[in-house]
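Methods — Computational structure assignment.
A single polypeptide chain was analysed. Its primary sequence is given first, followed by the predicted tertiary structure written as structure tokens.
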Amino acid sequence: MASPRKKPTDDTCAARPACCDRERVLEAAESVVLAKGIGALTLLAVAQEAKLSKSGLLHHFSSKDALLDALVTRTIACWEADVDAAVANTSPGPGRIARAILSTCLSSTRTWTETQRRSSQVLVAAVVQHPKHAEALRTAHRRILGRIAKDGLPPGVGEAIDLAANGMWFTWLLGLTEWTPARIAAVRSALERLLKQESAAPRPSARRPRPRTTGRKK
């Protein structure tokens, strides 16, 4: 899940106007999509929302497609940065990636912010409207699955943690259920028990093939 993005202050804008304007355009694009749907996303609508001229917007994004690419890339980058930070703060050993996912996604409802909901809803809308944007999401997911595969856990355990975290995230994102701190804690406790049990379970050792015996020579 993505970490909240800090909106630039006026002082920051004065120091880095180009960077600030680009971020303002992306925030404006999110607002347009959430308020009116992705079909209403046009460069003119975004420029008006960002209070920029259309030429000022075109300085950063040459087309609507480039704008959508930037929105998708920004959201995925935030997710991956969250996971990287959590891994760095997680002790080494089997299940390190899975434990980092739990600490990132299932720490508390305080980490599930409206900023995250906005960016994720726009990501889903972009993928549904323009399936080509799903490739960046698939690539990011393949990267995390590759790390899970090398996590020192029995097959399926890390994937189960990943699926549980993603499932909880999307039920919250779509408003399908309310995740209270108590419910999150209960699910996390169950998944941590699974990790502990599977990490301690003896691994089946590979059997060495018996040497072939030949009959005695007479």
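Note: DSSP finds ten helices and no strands in the chain.
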